[in-house]
Write a structure and sequence with these properties.
seven-stranded mixed beta sheet, about 15% strand
Length: about 900
C-alpha cells in the first residue's frame, strides 16, 4: 500500500506540475528574447556572420519570412540545418518537462513494445516466407466425403496415381505417410518419428540438402529403399554433426539404412519429423482404393489458382467415383494451402492478440494526446508570441509534430528493448508443438529487419497519431486574444475540452472491449480446465512404445511383450495399477473405424458412426478410472479362444441403440473380422482436440469403441500407470522394467497425464494470459486518462469552486461536481464500448469453450468494474477540490 500511495503521490505531483500555468507574459517574452540573443551569440562563436546567425536563430524561433529568405540564400543546406534545429529545439523543450516526457515515453514504450513483440510472433509464424521454393504454389490435396463428415481424409495409392497422371494444373505431386522407427547402435535406443516420402516429394518442396542428396527415382522399389535422409537436429544430437555421416549405415528397426543426406536446419516438413525414408509401395496397398493412408502435396503450375485446381480435381474425383463406385462414390477432393495447414490452428489466436495489442497502442496514443493537449494550453502564450514574431501555422505544426515524432521514436527504441525481453517469454508461453493442433514449430523468434521496420513505422505513425490533434489545436491559437487574456481566463476553451473528453471516452470504450475479451478468455479457460474429461489425470504416468515389426511381427509376440512388461510394472513399488491402450487420450494420436449394428440391412443413405477405437488391456479402465456404467470390463478370459468382445462409450451406445440396452448386442467394426458382442458400456472421455480443424476448441465427449488387446494386439502400445505418489518418481523404474524385457526397445513421451492435459490447453492459456495483461494495461491507461482530464478540469475550475464554496456549497456538493464530470465520460465510453464488444468478441468464438461470445454475466460485470475504477480515479482530484480554501481559490490565477 505504501508503494501504491507513493506512485499516486508522484503521479499527482507530476500532473499538477504539468497543468500549472506558465509565467506572466512579460517573463515569457523576456525568456524568448534571451533565447534569441543566446542563439545568435552561439552561432557567431561558431564562425557564422552576424547576419547569417540572426537569420538562423530566427528560423529556430519560427519566423516564416526568415525561412523563405534563408532557403533562397543558401538553398538545401539550410533546409537540412532547419530540420536539425527543429530537432534540437524539440529536445530542449522536452528536457524542460522531464516528468511529462518520462510519462509519455514510458506509455509509448509499453504500447509499441507489446505490439512489436506480438508482431514478431505473427511475422515468424504467419508472414515469414516458408523455407520451401515458391511456397505460395504448394498445396495439400485431401480426400473428402461430406456425406460422412470427412473434410481432410487420407488418400489411397491408386487415387494418388490417377490424380498425378490426369491433372493438368500441377507441376509436380508427391505422396507421404508417417512412420516410427527405433534407432539403435548410437547409445540408448531412441524412438524417432519418420516420414516415408515418394522419391519426388523433396523435389515438390524444392529444398536441397546441406549434405549429400535426396531420394533417387528407383529408391521406392522394395529392396532399394533402405536409404535415409536425416533431420538437421537429429544429425547434430545423435551423430554430433559428423559431416562424414553420408554413406554410413544406421540401424532402424534392426535393419541397416544408408544415410544419403542431411536436410537444412530450417527444413521441418512435417512438424517434429526426424528422418525420411523412401515410400516403398506394397502391392496390396497399391491395388486397394479403399485403403486410404497417404498424404499428398502438390505444386501449382505457374499462373494456376487454387480455385482452378480445385475445379479440375473435383472433375477427376467425379470420374473416379463413376469408375469405382464401391470405393469412390461420394468421394471428393479438398485443397488446402500449405501455409494454412501448418498455421491454421494458431492463426485465430495470433490475430486476436494482434488486434488486442493494437487497441492498447490506440489507448496509449489517446492518453498521450490528452497529456499533450493539456500541455499545449500552458504553451499558448509561447505560441502566440512566436506567431506574432512571424512564424507561420505550418511552421508551428511542423515543430509540434517534430516533438511528437521524436517522442514516438524514443518510445519505440525503449519499446524494442521491451519486445526483445517479451519474445523470450512468448516462446516459453507458446508450446513448440502440440499434437492436437497445427502449430508451426517456433523455437526462436528473431528481431529481424521486418520487425525493426515495423517498430520504426509504428513509432513514426504513433508519433503523428498522438501529436496531430494537439498540434492542430495549438495552431488555432489567436495571437491577439491570447496575449490579451488575463491569467484567470487562460483556460483551454470549449473546443480543447471537447477534444480531451472525446479522447477519454475513446480510451474507456477501447478498454472495455479489451476487458470483455480478456474476461471471456479467462472464463473459457477456467471451464476448459475444469471440464470433466471422463477419467482422472492425477497420479497417472504415461509412455509410448512402438514394437518393431521385424521383432514383434505376430500377435503372439506382441501380446507376450505386453503381458510381461505389464506384470513387471504392476509389481514395482509405488504402482497401483497399469494398463495399455492403442491411442492414449490427450496424446493427439487417434484412429477411427466405422461401426455398424450386426445383422441390420445396409442402408446406402445411412451414415454409420466412426468412433475412435483402441485395443486395451483388462486393467486399463481401472488405471485411468474410466467409469463402468453397464455390463463389465474386459478380463483375461477375453482372448482369441473366446467370443469377440467390445466395450462402447455411453454416447456411442446411445447413438446405436437410443432406447435399448446395448449389452449383448452385436456390432461390426471396420477392419476386424467377425462380429463383436457388446459386454460393457463405459463413461465418455474427452480428447480435448479431436476435430479441432473443423470446429475449434473441442472438449466434448468423443465416442469410442474398445477392443480387448488379447484379441487384437497392436504394435503401438501406450502405457497408463497409476501410482500412489508422484508419477515421475517411478519413471526410471518403469524404463528398467521395459529394458529388462527388451534392451533395445525404445520408449517415448514419458510424462504425466497432467502434463499432457496442460500441453493440450497451452494455446488457450497463453492467449488468456496475454489478453489479461493487455486488458490490465488498458485499464491502467484509461484510469490515468480519466484522472488527468478530471484533475485538469478541476484545476481550471478552481476559481469557480472557490465561489461555490464561498456561497455555501458543502464538501459533498464539490465531490458530486468533480466525480460527476468523470462519471459522465465513463458512462459514455462504456455505452460505446459495449456496442463495440458485442461486434468484436464474435471473432473470439473459435477460441472459447463453454462460454458464449455474448455472455450476459461478462457484459454486466466488466462495465461495473470499469466504472468503479473510473470513480476511484476521479476521487483523488475530487478530494483535493473538497479541501480548497475559498480565499486562496478566489485569488487563484
Amino acid at each position: 500500500m505504501a508503494l501504491i500511495r507513493s506512485v499516486i503521490r508522484n503521479l499527482t505531483a507530476g500532473l499538477r506540475g504539468l497543468f500549472r500555468r506558465r509565467e506572466a507574459d512579460e517573463e515569457l517574452d523576456s525568456e524568448l528574447r534571451q533565447y534569441l540573443d543566446a542563439a545568435v551569440t552561439e552561432k557567431i562563436k561558431a564562425g557564422m556572420r552576424r547576419e547569417d546567425a540572426l537569420r538562423a536563430a530566427r528560423i529556430e524561433m519560427g519566423s516564416a519570412e526568415a525561412v523563405k529568405e534563408d532557403v533562397r540564400a543558401v538553398g538545401w543546406e539550410t533546409v537540412v540545418e532547419t530540420f536539425w534545429q527543429d530537432i534540437r529545439f524539440a529536445v530542449r523543450t522536452l528536457r524542460k518537462n522531464p516528468g511529462l516526457t518520462a510519462i509519455v515515453i514510458t506509455t509509448l514504450a509499453l504500447g509499441i513494445g507489446a505490439n512489436t513483440a506480438i508482431f514478431s510472433v505473427v511475422n515468424t509464424v504467419l508472414l515469414r516466407p516458408m523455407p520451401y521454393k515458391q511456397a505460395d504454389r504448394l498445396v495439400t490435396v485431401w480426400g473428402a466425403n461430406k456425406a460422412r463428415g470427412y473434410d481432410l481424409d487420407l488418400v489411397s495409392y491408386s487415387d494418388y496415381l490417377d490424380w498425378k497422371s490426369q491433372n493438368r494444373v500441377f507441376e509436380s505431386m508427391g505422396a507421404a505417410t508417417d512412420e516410427m522407427y527405433t534407432l539403435t547402435g548410437a547409445g540408448e535406443p531412441v524412438a524417432v518419428i519418420g516420414y516415408a516420402f515418394s522419391p519426388d516429394f523433396f523435389d515438390v518442396l524444392g529444398v536441397p540438402p546441406v549434405l549429400g542428396r535426396t531420394f533417387g527415382r528407383d529408391e521406392d522399389q522394395p529392396g532399394k529403399d533402405h536409404v535415409v535422409v536425416l533431420n538437421y537436429h537429429l544429425w547434430r544430437v545423435q551423430f554430433g554433426g559428423d559431416r562424414s555421416i553420408v554413406g554410413r549405415n544406421v540401424t532402424l528397426d534392426g535393419k541397416a539404412y544408408t544415410v544419403i543426406g542431411v536436410m537444412p536446419q530450417s527444413f521441418q516438413y512435417p512438424q517434429s519429423v526426424e528422418l525420411w525414408t523412401p515410400l516403398a509401395i506394397v502391392p496390396d496397398y497399391a491395388k486397394d482404393r479403399g485403403i486410404r493412408w497417404l498424404r499428398v502435396l502438390a505444386r501449382f503450375k505457374p499462373g494456376v489458382t487454387i480455385d482452378q485446381a480445385h475445379s479440375e480435381m473435383k472433375t477427376i474425383a467425379a470420374r473416379l467415383g463413376s469408375a469405382y463406385p464401391k470405393t469412390n462414390k461420394d468421394y471428393d477432393v479438398n485443397l488446402v494451402s500449405l501455409r494454412e495447414l501448418t498455421s491454421g490452428d494458431v492463426r485465430p489466436a495470433l490475430l486476436v492478440l494482434l488486434c488486442s495489442v493494437g487497441l492498447v497502442l490506440l489507448i496509449a496514443c489517446a492518453n498521450v494526446a490528452n497529456l499533450l493537449l493539456s500541455r499545449a494550453v500552458t504553451r499558448k502564450r509561447e505560441i502566440a508570441i512566436r506567431v506574432a514574431l512571424g512564424a507561420s501555422r505550418l511552421r508551428m505544426l511542423r515543430q509540434f509534430l517534430t516533438e511528437s515524432v521524436l517522442l514516438g521514436i524514443v518510445g519505440g527504441a525503449f519499446g524494442l528493448v521491451i519486445a526483445y525481453w517479451g519474445v523470450g517469454a512468448l516462446v516459453a508461453m507458446f508450446p513448440t508443438t502440440i499434437s492436437n493442433l497445427s502449430i508451426p514449430r517456433v523455437e526462436t523468434i528473431p528481431i529481424d529487419r521486418w520487425v525493426l521496420g515495423f517498430a520504426l513505422l509504428a513509432s513514426v505513425v504513433t508519433g503523428i497519431a498522438f501529436g496531430l490533434v494537439p498540434a492542430l489545436q495549438a495552431c488555432r491559437v489567436s495571437p491577439n486574444e491570447s496575449l490579451k487574456e488575463s491569467g484567470r481566463s487562460g483556460t483551454a476553451g470549449s473546443h480543447g475540452r471537447r477534444l480531451r473528453n472525446i479522447l477519454v471516452v475513446s480510451e474507456v470504450a477501447l478498454s472495455l472491449v479489451l476487458l470483455t475479451a480478456a474476461s471471456l478468455m479467462i472464463k473459457s479457460f477456467v471451464r476448459l480446465v475444469q471440464a470433466d474429461l471422463g477419467f482422472h489425470t492425477d497420479h497417472l504416468l504415461t509412455l509410448r512404445v512402438l514394437l518393431p515389426e521385424y521383432k514383434y511381427g505376430t500377435d503372439t509376440e506382441q501380446l507376450a511383450f505386453s503381458n510381461e512388461v505389464l506384470g513387471r510394472i504392476q509389481s514395482s513399488p509405488g504402482v497401483k495399477s497399469a494398463g495399455t491402450v492403442t491411442f492414449l487420450p490427450l496424446s493427439g494420436w487417434w484412429g477411427t473405424r466405422e461401426i455398424s449394428i450386426a445383422g441390420r440391412p445396409a442402408d446406402p443413405a445411412a451414415k454409420n458412426p466412426r468412433p475412435v477405437w483402441s485395443s486395451v488391456s483388462p486393467d486399463y479402465f481401472r488405471a485411468t478410472n474410466i467409469a463402468l456404467l453397464k455390463g463389465r470390463y474386459f478380463t483375461d478370459q477375453d482372448n482369441k479362444s473366446t467370443r469377440n468382445a467390445a466395450i462402447l462409450s455411453a454416447s456411442l451406445a446411445r447413438e446405436l441403440w437410443p432406447n435399448e440396452d446395448p449389452i449383448g448386442k452385436e456390432v461390426n467394426v471396420q477392419g476386424f473380422n467377425g462380429t463383436r458382442q457388446v459386454v460393457g458400456v463405459v463413461g465418455d472421455i474427452s480428447q480435448l482436440g479431436i476435430g479441432v480443424h473443423q470446429s475449434g476448441i473441442n472438449s466434448e465427449p468423443t465416442s469410442e469403441v474398445y477392443i480387448p488387446f488379447a484379441q487384437e494386439p497392436t504394435h503401438l502400445l501406450c502405457f497408463a500407470i497409476r501410482t500412489a505418489g508422484d508419477p515421475l518418481s517411478v519413471a526410471n523404474a518403469v524404463r528398467r522394467e521395459v529394458w529388462a524385457v527388451d534392451k533395445e526397445q525404445a520408449m517415448s513421451f514419458i510424462e504425466t497425464m497432467d502434463q499432457l492435459a496442460s500441453e493440450t490447453t497451452a494455446l488457450q492459456r497463453a492467449s488468456m494470459i496475454l489478453l489479461a495483461v493487455f486488458a490490465g494495461l488498458a485499464l491502467v491507461l484509461a484510469s490515468i486518462g480519466i484522472y488527468g482530464v478530471v484533475s485538469y478540469s478541476a484545476s481550471q475550475r478552481t476559481h469557480e469552486i472557490g465561489i461555490r464554496i464561498a456561497l455555501g456549497a458543502g464538501s459533498r456538493d464539490v465531490l458530486h461536481l468533480v466525480i460527476g464530470e468523470g462519471l459522465l465520460l465513463t458512462v459514455a465510453g462504456v455505452a460505446i464500448g459495449i456496442a463495440g464488444a458485442f461486434g468484436l468478441t464474435r471473432f473470439l468464438a473459435s477460441l472459447l469453450y463453454g462460454v458464449s461470445s455474448a455472455d450476459p454475466a461478462t457484459f454486466v460485470t466488466v462495465p461495473m468494474v470499469l466504472t468503479a475504477v473510473a470513480v476511484a480515479a476521479c476521487y483523488i482530484p475530487a478530494r483535493r477540490a473538497m479541501r480548497l480554501d475559498p480565499m486562496v481559490a478566489l485569488r487563484y490565477e
